[in-house]
């Protein structure tokens, strides 16, 4: 079989640990490669960007900045309808994420929270092996709902010109412009700005290891904010014998279709079900040959079927793995959702494949990978909002609370100015 079946329990560290510690991209070596590019673009602007674009993309556009107002893309009516429906669903779901400004009275003082958006965002849309207009919708729409005033797409120039599908997606999502620059040089250009390219405070979206390294490096310098470091796509499916093995096999392969380094794992408590899924994976690889070598290598290198003694162990492993995409195809999937602590996005029941979230259901597909779901959330409206706290202290409360300020400031050795700034007002 192409995909390995392994009977395990949670104590089998020699089998499970290499999977839990899946090859997180070693960004240190990549950072050393992108750093000179970033510094060059910072110093020389468009001239450096033009040189790197010619070197890495084989051509340079006449202008790096494309104003979307000037374009009239011609796309198939079915694709346009799909983009508009996806945009509507994404917008509707993300609207419920808009937080309210709140205030409260505590000891006579009025305290509150106010949310303000970042002012500018760049959404990276990869080129190369695949084009993702859906990523443009996922990045731009939440930013606009958050109130971001300036949103631009940054994407590598394509031979033959910018695809109409990407232009249409950018217009439907509500972006301001498209920047034709890819890789680390594109990230540097939108982070620092150039003579022609506006700078952004926040840069989001998936990309290759050079894009990721550039985002992480510039974020570490405090130049930009980012969503989360991106790695290979991954899915973990938890299924019992009530699931359909044909469907589960297709869901595993849908992630393998992203790239040779994609991760596809099934956790189950049924060995016979595991065998059925493995057989269906093999059958599907023969019947659906498109991207066949890529899918097969992904499944051979990074695909696993783990048969645990029980479903509880499956959920324990899943929380340790913290998958980007988690499918729960069990008899009691709604109850089982309560057991999940760490996951980018969860797909419940037999009729919820990851592809629905990738394209049309309305949740976001820009998600933390490589275990980052333990500390990061999916991209959403909150990604682009900052919380500002405020307080209005009353004169009476200041006098009543001063003794506590005095005690605390004296203990910290800051009573001379901290304590005095309160005392002189009593």
TrEMBL record:
SUPFAM superfamilies, sorted: ALDH-like
Pathway in which the depicted protein is active: Amino-acid biosynthesis; L-histidine biosynthesis; L-histidine from 5-phospho-alpha-D-ribose 1-diphosphate: step 9/9
InterPro entries: Ald_DH/histidinol_DH, Histidinol_DH_CS, Histidinol_DH_monofunct, Hstdl_DH
Residue numbers annotated as active site: 324 (proton acceptor), 325 (proton acceptor)
Positions of Zn(2+) binding: 255, 258, 358, 418
Reactions listed under catalytic activity: L-histidinol + 2 NAD(+) + H2O = L-histidine + 2 NADH + 3 H(+)
GO molecular function, one term: NAD binding
Cofactor info, note text: Binds 1 zinc ion per subunit.
Residues bound to NAD(+): 124, 185, 208
Enzyme class: oxidoreductase
Ligand binding (substrate): 233, 255, 258, 325, 358, 412, 418
Chain's role: Catalyzes the sequential NAD-dependent oxidations of L-histidinol to L-histidinaldehyde and then to L-histidine.
HAMAP family given in the database record: HisD (MF_01024)
Database matches in NCBIfam families: hisD (TIGR00069)
Protein name: Histidinol dehydrogenase
Organism of provenance: Leptospira gomenensis
Gene that encodes it: hisD
């Amino acid at each position: 079989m192409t995909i390995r079946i392994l009977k395990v329990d949670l104590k089998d560290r020699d089998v499970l640990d290499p999977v839990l510690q899946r090859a997180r991209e070693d960004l240190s070596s990549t950072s050393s490669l992108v750093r000179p590019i970033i510094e060059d673009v910072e110093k020389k602007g468009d001239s450096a960007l033009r040189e790197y674009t010619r070197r890495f993309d084989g051509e340079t556009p006449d202008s790096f900045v494309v104003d979307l107002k000037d374009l009239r893309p011609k796309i198939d009516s079915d694709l346009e309808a799909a983009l508009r429906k996806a945009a509507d669903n994404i917008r509707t779901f993300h609207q419920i994420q808009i937080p309210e400004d709140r205030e409260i009275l505590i000891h006579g003082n009025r305290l509150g929270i106010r949310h303000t958006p970042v002012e500018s965002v760049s959404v990276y849309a990869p080129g190369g092996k695949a084009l993702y207009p859906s990523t443009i919708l996922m990045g731009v729409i939440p930013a606009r709902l958050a109130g971001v005033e300036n949103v631009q797409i940054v994407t590598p120039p394509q031979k033959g010109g910018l695809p109409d599908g990407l232009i249409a997606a950018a217009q439907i999502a509500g972006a301001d412009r498209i920047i034709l620059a890819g890789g680390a040089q594109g990230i540097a250009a939108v982070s620092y700005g150039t003579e022609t390219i506006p700078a952004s405070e926040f840069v989001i979206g998936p990309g290759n290891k050079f894009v990721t390294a550039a985002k992480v490096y510039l974020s570490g310098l405090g130049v930009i904010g980012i969503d989360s470091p991106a790695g290979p796509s991954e899915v973990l499916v938890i299924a019992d014998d009530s699931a359909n093995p044909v469907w589960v096999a297709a869901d595993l392969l849908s992630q393998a279709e992203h790239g040779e380094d994609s991760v596809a794992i099934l956790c189950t408590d049924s060995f016979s079900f595991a065998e059925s899924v493995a057989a269906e994976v093999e059958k599907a690889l023969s019947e659906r040959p498109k991207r066949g070598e890529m899918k097969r290598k992904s499944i051979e290198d990074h695909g696993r079927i783990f048969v645990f003694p029980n479903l509880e162990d499956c959920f324990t492993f899943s929380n340790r793995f913290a998958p980007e995409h988690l499918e729960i195809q069990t008899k009691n999937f709604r109850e089982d959702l309560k057991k999940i602590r760490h996951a980018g996005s969860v797909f419940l029941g037999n009729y919820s494949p990851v592809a629905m979230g990738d394209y049309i259901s309305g949740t976001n597909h820009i998600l933390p990978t490589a275990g980052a779901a333990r500390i990061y959330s999916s991209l959403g409206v909150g990604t682009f909002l900052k919380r500002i706290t405020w307080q209005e202290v009353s004169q009476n409360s200041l006098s009543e609370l001063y003794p506590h300020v005095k005690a605390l400031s004296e203990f910290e050795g800051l009573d001379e100015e901290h304590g005095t700034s309160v005392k002189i007002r009593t």
